Amino acid sequence: MGVAEIAEYARVSRQAISNMRNRDDSFPMPVEELRSGPVFLESEIREYFEPRAGSAGRSAPMPDSVVRHVPAGFDPLDKANLVASVVNALFSAPAQPLGQFEPFNGSGLYCLYYSGGDELYGPIAGGDPTRPIYVGTVHARARASNETLSASSSPALTRRIRSHAQSIEAVERHTTPTIKHPLFVRDFSFRCLVVDEMWAIPAIDSVMSRSAPVWNSAIRGFGANAIGGNRRAVRSAWDTLHPGRPWAEPLKDGYSVEGLETLAREHFSRAFETAVGI
């Protein structure tokens, strides 16, 4: 039997038969491949369709869109599923303005978001919670009353987020008409989640892989601290593109603004191309 004869027997389209062959490993193998198409044993075809037969002894018509699959087992306590639940909780947390928020106790993970008008960051300025500009995690340093580290026992997240706000405020104060990529704290918001570092670390790794935040990869240096002692260093990519932090000003240039613009645009092109179809 050829594909046309099988389609007539099963009362479906030829495309449906092709879909069955591609999607169902139990579909009979052809005994010959001719120029006109594959040829199958009639007995094997009948045996394949018999369990699927309707009252007339043949399979009822099936829409071409039907996809056969064997349901996989789902374990909600599997580590990957638990980490995914942490990431979803982070992305579902309410966004808060970076420049003004109430202090709170807690450590865990956070995402920063940009909503300004700089075309360089246009691809992530639309408010999508899965498209942060920067992500990070901070661990508890204070101990709870039972002498164990607690995710809610210190203001670690508050301190870190305020530190980031101060970095952006320094750039804002430094802004002049010659600065190509100024930053304004009013254009930034954040989401955070208070969670034990046992879950914060794998969750932030998942966010990094899924979202590819540009300030964690292509334009690095936003989370850097002042260089101590007499160590020689070059200005970070972030401080070159967004000058203004006082401790970075004396450092030598290690990058060009034009080169960093190219890096950022290439980064977004790759990140969004990879995300198609997810």
Name the descriptors.
single chain; 278 residues; alpha+beta; 4-stranded antiparallel beta sheet; two-stranded antiparallel ribbon; 8 helices; 35% helix; elongated
Please summarize what this structure is:
With about 280 residues, this protein is α+β, with helices and mostly antiparallel strands.
What features would you describe in this structure?
The protein is built from eight helices and six strands; from the N terminus they run ααββααβββαβααα. The protein has helices at residues 3-10, 14-23, 42-49, 79-92, 156-174, 197-211, 237-241, 257-275, and strands at 32-34, 37-39, 96-97, 108-114, 134-138, 188-194. β1 (32-34) and β2 (37-39) form a beta hairpin.
Write the layout of secondary structure elements.
Elements: H1 3-10, H2 14-23, E1 32-34, E2 37-39, H3 42-49, H4 79-92, E3 96-97, E4 108-114, E5 134-138, H5 156-174, E6 188-194, H6 197-211, H7 237-241, H8 257-275
Antiparallel strand pairs: 1-2, 3-6, 4-5, 4-6
Helix pairs in contact: 1-2, 4-6
